[in-house]
Amino acid sequence: MPIEALVTLKSESLSPVGRERIRLLEAVAREGSISAGAKAVGLTYKAAWDALDAMANLFGQPLLETRAGGRAGGGASLTPTGQRVIVAFNRLEAEMARVVRAISPDLAGTGISPLNLMSGFLMKTSARNALRGTIIDIVADALAAEVAVEVADATVIHALVTSESVRTLGLCVGRDAVVLVKAPFVVVAPGDVPPRTSFRNCLHGIVQRVEAGAVGAEVVLDIGGGKTLAATITAHSAQALNLAPGKPAFALIEAAHVILAID
């Protein structure tokens, strides 16, 4: 039986990117729409959007250009970054397969599968929102620190952490970091005018989609730069706030609810 290398790119703080997500990206590009691409790889429309959002957030740039309209939910095509991601991943898989074939004789009879050596790089996270950015400011005292992370042009998320965490993680201005926020911690306020609020983070965006069930709803906001934020609210709230694709809204997040991670 031929040996196949399965590559999964992970980090302690990032959602994993493996063959399934790359194949989805390829399918969307091939079929010309997210709905058709999702169907081609056996995913629901929502699962496909979630995977594509995660990839865009974690690679730090949009991988797809989308256009609204049409019975199939509009069209989609790869950005130059999306094209490079696919090429790089396929090349990495091919190189890993070559390495696996080379070391297989040395592992014969050991009970160790060479494929077990090709697992991902670190761990997964349960946070719905994981956005890569760059630290642009740190204000600290003896106990606490506020860290500002720019996740897109003119889009900054503030995190409140301990000063000990700043030292332990080696946080400094200019260093890349990943912002983690659980979806239930994101509050959505509709409109174009920033609400008067005590929330440290008030991020303007456009409602990209709303998935509502009998009780709960997930609202995804496009916050620019190919980045999105997902919020979990009640279905009643989504209806009362008249949240719908294309409408402006703000994502409100307490700084203490933001977790920072580094590679």
TrEMBL record:
GO molecular function, one term: molybdenum ion binding
Keywords attached to this entry: Molybdenum, Repeat, Transport
Identification of the protein by name: ModE family transcriptional regulator
Listed PANTHER family: DNA-BINDING TRANSCRIPTIONAL DUAL REGULATOR MODE, TRANSCRIPTIONAL REGULATOR MODE
Pfam families, sorted: HTH_1 (PF00126), TOBE (PF03459)
Annotated GO biological process: molybdate ion transport
Mop domain span: 124-190, 196-262
Family stated for the protein in its record: Belongs to the ModE family.
UniProt source species: Aquabacter spiritensis
Region (Required for dimer formation and molybdate binding): 125-133
Highest taxon in the source lineage: Bacteria
SUPFAM superfamilies attached to this UniProt entry: MOP-like, Winged helix' DNA-binding domain
